[in-house]
Amino acid sequence: MCLQHSDGPAPSPSAPIRRLATEILIEVFSHYSEASPVDSVRHVFQTELKRLANAPLLTLSQVHLFPDRAAFINVITVPLWNEGGIWLSPWWFHMNHDWPLPRRIFHLLAQHSHRWHTAAFTCPLDGINLAVLKGRLPLLKKLEINIPKSLSFHTRDFLDGTPLLDTLVVSSPFLDNVDSIIFNQILEFGCVVAQLRHIARVVSVLSKLKTGASHFNLSFHSDAEYNQQIALGIAPTVSNIIHFFCKMTGTFHLHHSHQVLGDIFASLTLPKLQSLYLKASQFPWDVLGWPQALFLSLSERSGFHRSLKALKIPHVRITDDELICVLSSLAMLEHLEIADKARVYDEGVDLLLITDRLLRSLTRTRTTACIGLVPRLRRLTCASRLKFTHSIFLDFVISRVEPFAAVPMRVEIRPLSEEDGSLDPAVHAHLRELASRDRQLVYTFGGVQYCHIGTCRLQRCRFQYCRYQNREVNRRWG
Predict the structure, then answer these.
(1) Which residue, among 153, 226, 230, has the nearest Cα to 195 in the 3D structure?
(2) pLDDT per residue over 300-311, tens digit each?
(3) Using CA atoms, how far apart are residues 306 and 272, in angstroms rounded to an integer?
(4) What domain of life (predicted)?
């Protein structure tokens, strides 16, 4: 469980944490004193933990609990109730779900629930009724309940007292009685699907989210046998969601991912969608199938030619012919992320996607009659085996550098593996020189960025902001 509290003044000498009985704090530690420790490279920090653990608890003026090691709840002298956390994820305790949150610790923390800004329950809640929190979460904005078991209706009822809640992440058992949950205030929703048959229930939530909802994140795995047919039975669903992220975790068969994505595409209409991101957690060993016909139907039905600005499919098995067909109907696309494929230890697939034909299709010409695919493209991100003609790649980049564009063209390319080598030295030098003198190009190869000094300064400022945003996304969605 993780708790984060809203900013506020530091606790006074009479703050509640100072009045906690020593035996209660000792009990907090004793629950985990027998847990198997996890190896740590931070030897000095580990030594300090041991020193603190042996110090009399009454000498600590403040207590701060936050995630670190399985055998410890860390103690340092900073305010607890301004910002802090206790992570009791079962994966940190013997790598299983056998470590539920102790009831007494939960009730101890619940006494301060009126200050919670975020809360994350990632451990079993056996014997704990979250209904005690009802009406006591006035500041809660973000909630994660990623637990292996379903919650009863009266336990879910505590959500009625969360007027500021706009971000909700749950595991699919939480949605057993989806009609009992109020979603009309949720702007960002994520779900970790425990079983494929739950996907239909999860997708149905899309139509219940608040108007203007921005993010929908779906994470699932498949344990189906090779010859097993998958039919999810998803009802037709219309949603105004803006960003759709779908991740398939663990190992799976290629044709199963094709069936699952096909069922999802066939059920949805997304007229406001701006970003679609498909990911395989075990790439390159596992890649996602691509239901071309069903995606094209989704695109036409939803009007992606008017709305879709980002298509990120680096882990998808799609051919250059199929991608060209897809891009021909995405006139508003600004960001494309793709990748070649290569087998690794006899797993995965071999596929060249970034080919001369694709690059020529993306290259703009001087004639107004042929402006190339996706005329608004301002960012290409790719992992490549570099099997294309490098001079054709150079022509593509040059054709996309516009003198008066509002934002620079960003080209980010890296070799798929070390064996794939590098760009032709003359082409690489040309792109470096072009990026250094032209504010309208940011060129990145192998993680090294080249750009005009003025643009680089601006990019560094944006990078600091994006890095913070990415931390938020990773923490929220994993």
Answers:
(1) 230
(2) 999 999 999 999
(3) 9
(4) Eukaryota
CA angle 307, 294, 342 (to 5 degrees): 95
C-beta separation of 146 from 171 below 8 A: yes
Q: Count the neighbouring beta carbons within 10 Å of the beta carbon of residue 131.
A: 17
Query: What does DSSP assign to residue 351?
Result: B
Residue 476 has φ and ψ, to the nearest 5°, of -80, -40
Tell me how far CA of residue 371 lies from CA of 310, 330, 333, 365, 393, in angstroms.
Answer: 19, 14, 14, 6, 16
Cβ count within 10 A of residue 452:
19
Contact 215, 245 (CB under 8 A): yes
Question: Which residue has tokens 């069936």?
Answer: 259
Q: Which secondary structure element, helix H or strand E, spans residue 465, and what is its range?
A: helix 453-477
Helix and strand numbers, DSSP H then E, in the chain: 13, 16
pLDDT tens track for 173-232 = 888 776 767 788 899 999 999 889 899 999 999 998 887 788 999 999 887 888 888 889
Residues in Cβ contact with 301 at an 8 Å cutoff, skipping those fewer than 6 apart: 269
Taken in order 209, 217, 179, 109, is the CA torsion positive or negative? negative
Mutual orientation of helices 390-400 and 425-437 as an angle, nearest 10°?
10
pTM for the full model? 0.77
Helix (H, G, I), strand (E, B) or coil at 381: strand
For helices 292-302 and 254-267, the axis angle rounded to 10 degrees is 20
Measured CA to CA in angstroms, residue 388 lies from 22, 200, 360, 470 at distances of 68, 41, 11, 32
H or E element in which residue 203 lies: helix 199-204
Q: How far, in Å, CA of 55 to CA of 74, rounded?
A: 13
